[in-house]
Structure formats: C-alpha cells, structure tokens
Amino acid sequence: MGLLTNLKDSISRAAASLFSEEDPKRIGIYGPPNAGKTTLANRIARDWTGDAVGPESHVPHETRRARRKENVEIERDGKKVTIDIVDTPGVTTKVDYTEFLEHDMEKDDAVRRSREATEGVAEAMHWLREDVDGVIYVLDSSTDPFTQVNTMLIGIIESQDLPVLILANKIDLEDSSVQRIRNAYPQHETIPLSALEGDNMDEVYDKIAEYFG
Amino acid sequence: MAEVKDPDDGVQIDLISGERMDGLTSMEKIRLILDGVRDGNIVILEEGLSPDEESRLIEVTMTEISPDEFNGIEIETYPKSEAADASLLDRIMGTESTKKLTVIGPANQIETLHKDKNLISALVSRK
C-alpha cells in the first residue's frame, strides 16, 4: 500500500514537473487605488472568457482581496497566450477610515472596510514578492503619476526582474495625459487605454502577448 | 533613541545613518522605523531601504493600522531608482546601489507639498 502510494506520488510529481512549463503565467494587475484595475481585469476576462472578475466602484478599496481568473486565453496573430489574471487591491501606505465616511458610509462599515483594505494591501504585497510571474501596472492618466507608492512599487517590481507593462488608463477623461506617465517612468513602455470604454484594447492585448506570452 | 521632554514642544526628527542601518536585519530596520513613526517622529534614513525591505515595510505598516490610533505612514524618496540602471552583473552579485535619502513620518502629520526628480518639499505638523 505504502509502496503504491509512493509510486503514485512520484508519478504525479514527475507529471507536474513535466507540464509545469506549460502552466499559465500569473500576471498581477497592480497600481494605486482607483486606477481602474478591476475594470481592466473585468474587460480582459469578459473579452476572452465571458465572465467578470469582481465588482467595480468609485469608492477606493472596493477590491480588498486578490482575485484570480484562471486560464484566460488571448489569441494574437493565430497564437494563443494563456495567462492567469490576478486582480489585486490598490497599494497604499496609509488607510484612514474617515475617508470612507465621505462616501455615505456608517462608521462601523467604514472601519470594517479600512481593516479589510489593510489586509488586502498586505496580501497584494505578498503576492508580488512570491506569486506573480509578471505585472500589468495600471495608472490613472488623469492624475499625477509621480507618487511615492508608484515609484516604490515599480522599484520593487524591477528589483525582482519581473516583466512589467505600464498602462495609462482613463484616456477618455479630459485631464488625461499619457505623456506625463511616459516622462515619469521612461524606462518602461507605456500603453494608453480606457478600460471602461474599451479604447485601444487591441494594442493592450498585443503587448500582453508580447510581454507575457 | 532619546525622547524629547514634551512632545507638545515640537516634532522629533531622527536622522539615521547608513552605518547604523547596515548592522540591522530587515525586520530590525522596519521595527526601528515604525516604532519611531508611531511615536509621532519623523525618521530620515541616510541610505534608505532595499526594494524588498520597502515591500515588507508596506506589509507590516498595513498590519499595524488601527482606527483612531495609527493611519499608516507617508514615505518619500527621490523617484529615480538606481536599481533600474544597475548592470546585470551588479544585480547578480547583489552589488547594485539602492542608496537614496528617505523620509518617513506618520500619515496624519506629514504632507508632501511638492515632489520631483530632485526635490521633495513636505509639511510636517505637530500631533
């Protein structure tokens, strides 16, 4: 019995290592709160699988748990690229529950949301250090990209030698400036898009295939 | 670290040399920073933290945030990451330079007024 179990285990381990190179790459969608990460994750998931990843909201920290959508097959030029999308909570160095009170939330709900948000950020950092193979870094192109969180996170990603694609989201907004992001992070390619409107998604998929395929 | 006599008198600033940080483990560095910041001090690191330590600092800060008590930290360094310029050999050998002056303070007491590639201007208020 023991011998058989051992043999079975060995065979499954060998099979796992044999096929491991074909495992889909886990691509983390990172960025500050309210950059449109979940809107992008939902756009990609809906375009290629028909399902959404999670709820979107204008209230910061709507995503408070990392959510993985597995086996998203993206077809480019007759080639298939399979990735797992990991939608992560927006990263920040501070969470003040009183900011949620401004969104018509009761104190108890605001405190709970802030506690969940802090857990979510810690979780996102852990995923980044341990569990992602590449990063899509989403920025709101209508806001200043020169923030400490962006600088630190891009530095952390670079230090791990992970491939990173910077997306300048919300180009449908009047204040949008893609050039401001290009100037802030000239060492990386920046692709403009509106995840909400679906603008320029073809180029985004081309680049996803190029960077993570 | 020496305490000011009365916190109402002003804001304590701890300037920590690279030499002092060199002898500490990652968690000791993070503890040193967060203990100072939670006491309402502004901590200035001569040589900053490595990207991995910054990542852990964010994670530990998140676990310590508590409503009406501690809202987290404000941290500023110059945006240019030297790690991006390091040669592959430097990265492999772990000899890349990550030295960068870093200012860290309680989120409710420090506000960045202006920041660009070579200037950080911040407003520090009392508790």
Gross geometry of chain A = globular
Q: With helices defined by DSSP (H or I, 4 residues minimum), what is the helix count of chain B?
A: 4
**How many domains of chain A, as an integer?**
1
For the record, the CATH architecture of chain A stands as: 3-Layer(aba) Sandwich
Determine and state the CATH class of chain B.
Alpha Beta
Strand content of chain A: 15-25%
Largest sheet of chain A: 6 strands, mixed
Task: Describe the structure in your own words.
The complex is a heterodimer of chains A (213) and B (127). Chain A is of the alpha/beta class and 213 residues long. Chain A has a single domain (22-212), classed as P-loop containing nucleotide triphosphate hydrolases (Rossmann fold), CATH 3.40.50. In chain A, 42% of the residues lie in helices and 19% in strands. Chain A contains seven helices and six strands, in the order αβαββααβαβαβα. Chain A has a six-stranded mixed β-sheet, with helices on both faces. In chain A, helix 6 (178-184) links the parallel strand 5 and strand 6. The longest helix of chain A has 24 residues, at 107-130. Chain B has 127 residues and is α+β, with helices and mostly antiparallel strands. Chain B has a single domain (13-124), classed as 2-Layer Sandwich (Methyltransferase, Cobalt-precorrin-4 Transmethylase, Domain 2), CATH 3.30.950. Chain B is 30% helix and 23% strand. Chain B is built from four helices and six strands. Chain B has helices spanning 18-22, 26-38, 51-64, 88-93, and strands at residues 13-16, 42-45, 73-77, 102-106, 110-115, 120-124. Chain B has a four-stranded mixed β-sheet with strand order 1-2-4-3. In chain B, strands 5-6 form a two-stranded antiparallel sheet. The longest helix of chain B is centred in the middle third of the chain and has 14 residues, at 51-64. Chain B is globular, with a radius of gyration of 15 Å. The A-B interface holds A 91-97, 111, 114-115, 118-119, 121-122, 125-126, 128-129, 146, 148, 151-152, 154-156, 158-161, 184, 187 and B 50-52, 54-56, 58-59, 61-63, 65, 67, 71-77, 79, 81, 83-84, 91, 98, 107-108, 112, 115-116. Chain A: Pfam families: MMR_HSR1 (PF01926). Chain A: InterPro entries: GTP-bd (IPR006073), P-loop_NTPase (IPR027417), Small_GTP-bd (IPR005225). Chain A: This is GTP-binding protein. Chain A: Residues 26-170 form the G domain. Chain A: It comes from Haloarcula saliterrae.
